[in-house]
Specification:
Strand order of the largest sheet: 1-2
Oligomer: single chain
Radius of gyration: 34 Å
Strand content: 5-15%
Number of helices: 13
Length: 343
């Protein structure tokens, strides 16, 4: 009996060793298969994207990957890999670009990093608020929450109640992701303008003929609209600053055009120059009530640091540059030469 038990025991030991070996070998090959899955291209079709929404579980994200054509591996393998990478609670919301070369491991890392597609929107120097609204309405990615707001309501929503919208958004290129709204982008642009205007105001020359950052912004917007050649901004600002100092009307066409609004048909006539509006600097002295366009950083700095000199007039040469004059007689000769063809 004891002999039989010993034989049985030895058999069980051998069987256990065989089973352990089988399990070990099977585990090794399973591990090799799993690693091969994790580090082989997942086969996402070229040019596809996937959007992770707020509240999506990993199972839902995986379902979205399957829906756009990611066929690699079994769902269980994806879940095990995500668990091993401690990714389940860390996947970030957004739109992700997929690539055929991405492995499951790299794809999950991308989701955890939040390596989302970033789109660009550029506010152009010299745009009016009307131009900005039109460009935003054409953007196919931003979610529109602006069209229901007028300019006053927009500024209230941005925490700037009582501040005119015109000129308050810095011309730059802004990055955004799918799901962001037009108002959130404008919030970025308004903050950027606040900072740029504060910098220009802090760097301003002493004894300028205006006493607030808002007036500096207004002058900068006029300089922006009058300037075809960037290097001329400080000199054009200097002309307007000297006019303001001596109580001379600014007499700048862009303010008249702004005051005409939708009535302007592209042709500025003498009657337009003589029709009084709050923005007609031919009929009124001083700066207009607020900015007429979005000035860039260079225009802001030109208004803060205008070029010193004696010129009071300028006329377009027709090549984007201007002829500057000290006296009205000089100016008239320049008008004849450059605007009237020498007649």
């Amino acid at each position: 009996m004891r002999s039989l038990l010993r034989k049985l025991f030895r058999f069980l030991v051998k069987l256990g060793l065989v089973l352990a070996l089988v399990i070990a070998v099977g585990g090794y090959f399973a591990w090799r298969h799993f690693e091969a899955f994790a580090d082989a291209p997942a086969g996402a079709p070229e040019g596809t994207t996937v959007v992770v929404a707020r509240g999506d579980s990993f199972v839902q994200v995986l379902g979205k990957l399957r829906a756009v054509g990611v066929e690699a591996g079994h769902d269980l393998e994806w879940k095990v890999l995500a668990t091993r990478m401690q990714a389940l609670p860390r996947i970030q919301v957004g739109e992700y670009a997929l690539d055929p070369a991405l492995t499951p491991r790299q794809l999950i890392e991308k989701l955890v990093r939040g390596d989302v597609i970033r789109y660009r929107f550029t506010i152009v120097e010299g745009w009016s608020m009307r131009d900005l609204r039109a460009a935003l309405s054409r953007d196919a990615v931003l979610e529109d929450d602006l069209s229901a707001l007028d300019d006053v309501e927009l500024m209230v929503s941005l925490g700037r109640e009582g501040v005119p919208a015109e000129g308050r958004f810095l011309p730059e290129t802004y990055l955004f992701t799918r799901g962001e709204t037009t108002v959130s982008l404008l919030d970025q642009a308004a903050d950027a303008m606040d900072a740029a205007l504060a910098d220009a105001w802090a760097a301003r020359q002493p004894n300028l003929p205006f006493d607030s950052p808002e007036q500096l912004l207004t002058l900068a917007s006029i300089v922006e609209k009058e300037t075809g050649k960037a290097s001329e901004r400080p000199e054009i600002a200097g002309v307007f600053v000297r006019r303001l100092r001596i109580g001379m009307r600014m007499q700048t066409d862009p303010t008249v055009i702004y005051g005409l609004g939708a009535a302007f048909d592209g042709n500025l006539r003498r009657r337009d120059l003589e029709t009084d509006t709050p923005f007609n600097t031919y009929t009124r002295f001083g700066l207009p009530p607020h900015a007429i366009a979005m000035p860039g950083r260079a225009a802001l700095m030109a208004a803060a640091q205008p070029l010193d000199g004696e010129t009071l007039y300028f006329v377009a040469r027709g090549d984007g540059s201007h002829q500057f004059s000290r006296t009205y007689a000089e100016h008239r000769r320049a008008v004849v030469r450059y605007q009237l063809g020498g007649r």
